[in-house]
Amino acid sequence: METVPPAVDLVLGASACCLACVFTNPLEVVKTRLQLQGELQARGTYPRLYRGFVASVVAVARADGLCGLQKGLAAGLLYQGLMNGVRFYCYSLACQAGLSQQPGGTVVAGAVAGALGAFVGSPAYLVKTQLQAQTVAAMAVGHQHHHQSLLGALETIWRQQGLAGLWRGVGGAVPRVMVGSAAQLATFASAKAWVQERQWLPEDSWLVALAGGMISSIAVVAVMTPFDVVSTRLYNQPVDGAGR
């Protein structure tokens, strides 16, 4: 089977994930607000402004307009390009080195590649989270950072907190992407093979890869969500003048 060069994996992986980001970003806005709601408060002691997926989509649209569902899109695209470009490139290098042929090698390669991607893309995810949390006072959950744009947010964080401030919260992001990447890269091939064995779709159809990816995503979400909640809260929390 012809192998794909790591550089091509980088471009294709980053491009595909950026395209997907355009469609999934509204879900990220809703997810961010659901995860920040009730932060460090006991159940029943805070108002639930966002209730479930559909009601939360409606709430965001009412508060911020339909465009509000695409808040943080530029930061999301930057993150997907950086994180997944690095992730697919490193994973491709590991496969070329034969790591994937070793027992557990696919999981290890996926986890390491994910960790590197998460570290590189962390500043973009930091800004994305803070932009997506911003809304009118009546619907606000979590700290409001009042950024105006991606570049403005990066500049503000740089000026106020220095270079280290741009990587604040990376301690939650690295394990988040490690487990997600390991689960995705370890289950996608087997999920795709399972779909092919069932012969529900033409063997050479792109729908086989789509079905395999959707099945694999169930495993990704199951292992990744607890880390995702922690990561979102670390990224959005306020800090004092000393960065504490």
UniProtKB/TrEMBL annotation:
Membrane topology according to the record: Multi-pass membrane protein
Solcar repeats: 4-97, 101-194
Record keywords: Membrane, Mitochondrion, Mitochondrion inner membrane, Repeat, Transmembrane, Transmembrane helix, Transport
Primary location group: mitochondrion
Claim: Lipoprotein is one of the keywords in the record: no
Gene3D superfamilies: Mitochondrial carrier domain
Catalysis performed (reactions): a dicarboxylate(in) + sulfate(out) = a dicarboxylate(out) + sulfate(in)
Pfam families: Mito_carr (PF00153)
Subcellular location: Mitochondrion inner membrane
Tree of life domain: Eukaryota
PROSITE patterns the UniProt entry points to: SOLCAR
Membrane-spanning intervals of the chain: 206-227
Functional note: Putative antiporter that exchanges dicarboxylates and sulfur oxoanions across the inner membrane of mitochondria.
Family the UniProt entry places it in: Belongs to the mitochondrial carrier (TC 2.A.29) family.
Name assigned to this protein: Solute carrier family 25 member 34
Organism: Cervus elaphus hippelaphus
Lineage, highest ranks first: Eukaryota, Metazoa, Chordata, Craniata, Vertebrata
